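2024-03-11 09:14:02 DEBUG pipeline.ingest accepted 1 chain
2024-03-11 09:14:02 DEBUG pipeline.ingest length=139
2024-03-11 09:14:03 DEBUG pipeline.predict start
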Amino acid sequence: MYKVFLIISLFLGGFCVFSEAQENPELSTIYFMRSTGLAGRPGPFGACIDDSLACKLNNNCYSIHKVTPGLHSFQAWIDGRKPKEKIQSLDILMQPGETYYISMSVTNHGFYTTLYLVEVTKNTAKKMFLTLKEDDSCK
């Protein structure tokens, strides 16, 4: 019975997250999501919108950001501090009132870790939100 209650609560919480994003139809919404497990470093990963730090995102968390519609560039880096050169950039042409989802992913290569961003669909994001919580401290 407890598991059923937990699943329903997580589902309703995820529904609230998606309905919250539609508050202002003039702006676009971007979600940064991080579920990297033990890969990478245990500290926060930096998330950047148009060369400005938007968030230092902890593991198993997501953050929500409102931006003006148009072309935006998103970057991420390990350790929450900006590297000397950009690791990777993801450009998205954002439409008014639309919501976009970016997942932070890592690949281990022996002695170093590569962090990259992947734009995911709403359905994929819904599944990810079942195990993520909003990181209010990153704003």
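2024-03-11 09:14:41 DEBUG pipeline.report Confidence is low (pLDDT under 50) at residues 1-22.
2024-03-11 09:14:41 DEBUG pipeline.predict end
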